[in-house]
C-alpha cells in the first residue's frame, strides 16, 4: 500500500515540524492552504497557533466550509493545542463568533493553563502510543472540561494544580492533544495518527 497523503493546515503554527514528524511516521506530508489541496489529502493535521486567528484565516482562504464537509464525511484529523480548540464542539473563554468544527464532542477551555509565561513540560502516560511516558510541552494550552459519549480519554495531567485535567482525546478518526508533540522529537502521536489514516483509507477502499 502506498503511503497515505496527510496535509498540514499551513495557515499558522509549527507547520514544518508537523511535516517532518509525519514524514518520519511514513506518510506523504503536504501543506494545505487551498480547498483543492484539502480535497486531495487522506487526513489533516491542524497545528497550534492562535485559535481565533486561525478561524478567521480559514474563512479568508475559503477553507472553513470545505473542512467542515470533509470532517462530516469522515476525514481523519489531528489537532494539537489550537487545533484541539478548533475541532471541539464547544469552546469556553472565547469570542461569540469563534469557529468550531464539531469534529469532537468535547468542551475545551482556551488558555486554561495560563499565559505564555505559564508554559510548562511534564511526562504523560498516553493511551495507544505505547512505550515510556511521553514528554509533553504545553504552550498557552487548552484543556478538556467535558467529554461526550464515544470520546476516549488518552491522557490526563498527572500532578500539580491541573492534576486530572484531560489533555488528549480521540473520537473515531479524530485525535487531539493540548500539547505539542511535534517539538519534542517524539513521533508516537504522529505515528498513531498516520495509522488511523491508513486504516480509514483501507476501510474506504472497495474490495
UniProtKB/TrEMBL annotation:
Pathway: Cofactor biosynthesis; pyridoxal 5'-phosphate biosynthesis. Gene3D superfamilies: 3.40.50.880. In the presence of PdxS, forms a dodecamer of heterodimers. Only shows activity in the heterodimer. PROSITE patterns: GATASE_COBBQ, GATASE_TYPE_1, PDXT_SNO_1, PDXT_SNO_2. The keyword Ribonucleoprotein does not apply. This is Pyridoxal 5'-phosphate synthase subunit PdxT. Belongs to the glutaminase PdxT/SNO family. It catalyses: L-glutamine + H2O = L-glutamate + NH4(+); aldehydo-D-ribose 5-phosphate + D-glyceraldehyde 3-phosphate + L-glutamine = pyridoxal 5'-phosphate + L-glutamate + phosphate + 3 H2O + H(+). The active site is at 81 (nucleophile), 180 (charge relay system), 182 (charge relay system). Pfam families: SNO. GO terms for molecular function: pyridoxal 5'-phosphate synthase (glutamine hydrolysing) activity. It comes from Rhodococcoides corynebacterioides. InterPro entries: Class_I_gatase-like (IPR029062), PdxT/SNO (IPR002161), PdxT/SNO_CS (IPR021196). The gene is pdxT. Its EC number is 4.3.3.6, 3.5.1.2. Keywords: Glutamine amidotransferase, Hydrolase, Lyase, Pyridoxal phosphate. Transmembrane segments: none annotated. SUPFAM superfamilies: Class I glutamine amidotransferase-like. L-glutamine binds at residues 49-51, 110, 139-140. Coiled coil: none annotated. Catalyzes the hydrolysis of glutamine to glutamate and ammonia as part of the biosynthesis of pyridoxal 5'-phosphate. The resulting ammonia molecule is channeled to the active site of PdxS.
